[in-house]
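wait is this the right file?? whatever heres the structure
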């Protein structure tokens, strides 16, 4: 699966819920087989049974559908992430990625959530003229964005160029600005094309097929990742920060993960914030804190504290964007910590006083739920 649509949701999927029925209904059977559209109905079936308090099985069905291209399943995941249903933390940035993917998959409600009105008749755009202004030959943001940094607002001169280009080529450009009060690490630059007829052909002609079948190109030197999504209705080009699996895990460092600025467990919230001024740690409950980061996709880090803001455990909800990336992450953890103990639901490693566990992912999962305590 991919993210941005990515992207699926270890932010969402967890083990639990009621015992499964002895005879699941036809839509569940079809979803577990190959019918992507049946997954939306299967998720709705479980939502009605379990209610909004226990969405695990519904999320599993919608995840399967979204990974196979069903727009309504992606839209359902977007709503859960956006609203923070079933006690989950709202993440508008990730929710938007699911709405984009849902809109690309034909879900008109998600298109409306994005402010997109899809045209009845595609309008041809001269992509040979349009693309060089917004994307360079090495897949970096083009001259329209000269002077802009990911995570920062457009300077006035950049905004003027952006507006002129967007008006000329029927597109919308969104810069996700780093919010110091909540999303210290979040930063995106996205171009949404409302009338993208011919864009797929132009992108493939310019860059060839992407590195992964999910539409991603990565640049490990610049630490950026470009994702592309599109069909006859809407398309997008999205840049985001990037860390490789090894950079996230640090296989040769047994003291911490690469996702930790310092070893988190046992540290205080104050020392963590001082060690990572670009990733703001914000309160997310009575004794919980969170911050956002990027790896091969968005990452949410939740910190559970005890007395005097001392961290007792850290939970990493990691969107890897592809099942092979999920496998690579687990392999990197094994290289770092040795062969894990395997329970029914998780892989578990111990190193000194630290305990690491990863919920066993589904066969097509592009997400990881990692707990460090």
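ok assuming it is, sequence goes like this
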């Amino acid at each position: 699966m991919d993210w941005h649509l990515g992207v699926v949701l270890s932010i969402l999927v967890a083990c639990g819920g009621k015992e499964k029925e002895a005879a699941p209904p036809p839509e569940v059977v079809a979803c577990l087989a190959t019918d992507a559209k049946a997954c939306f109905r299967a998720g709705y079936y479980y939502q009605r049974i379990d209610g909004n308090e226990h969405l695990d099985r519904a999320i599993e069905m919608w995840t399967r559908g979204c990974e196979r291209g069903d727009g309504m399943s992606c839209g359902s995941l977007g709503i859960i992430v956006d609203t923070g249903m079933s006690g989950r933390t709202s993440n508008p940035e990730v929710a938007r990625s699911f709405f984009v993917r849902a809109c690309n998959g034909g879900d008109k409600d998600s298109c409306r959530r994005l402010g997109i009105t899809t045209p009845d008749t595609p309008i041809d755009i001269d992509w040979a003229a349009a693309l060089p202004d917004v994307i360079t030959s090495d897949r970096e943001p083009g001259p329209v964005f000269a002077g802009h940094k990911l995570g920062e607002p457009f300077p006035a001169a950049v905004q003027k160029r952006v507006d002129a280009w967007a008006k000329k080529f029927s597109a919308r450009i969104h810069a996700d600005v780093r919010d110091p009060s909540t999303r210290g690490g979040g930063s995106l630059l996205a171009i949404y094309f409302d009338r993208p007829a011919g864009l797929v052909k132009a992108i493939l002609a310019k860059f060839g097929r992407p590195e992964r079948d999910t539409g991603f190109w990565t640049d490990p030197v610049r630490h950026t990742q470009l994702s592309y999504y599109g069909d006859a209705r809407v398309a997008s080009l999205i840049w985001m920060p990037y860390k490789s699996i090894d950079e996230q895990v640090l296989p040769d460092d047994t003291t911490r993960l690469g996702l930790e600025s310092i070893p988190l467990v046992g540290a205080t919230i104050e020392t963590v914030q001082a060690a990572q001024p670009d990733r703001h740690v914000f309160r997310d409950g009575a004794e919980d804190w969170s911050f956002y980061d990027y790896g091969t996709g968005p990452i949410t880090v939740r910190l559970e504290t005890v007395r005097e803001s001392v961290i007792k455990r850290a939970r990493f909800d990691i969107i890897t964007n592809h099942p092979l990336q999920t496998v690579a992450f687990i392999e990197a953890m094994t290289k770092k910590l040795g062969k894990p103990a395997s329970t029914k639901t998780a892989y578990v490693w111990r190193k000194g006083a630290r305990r690491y566990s990863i919920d066993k992912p589904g066969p097509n999962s592009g997400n990881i739920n990692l707990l460090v305590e």
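The chain has twelve helices and 13 strands. so i think its the right one actually
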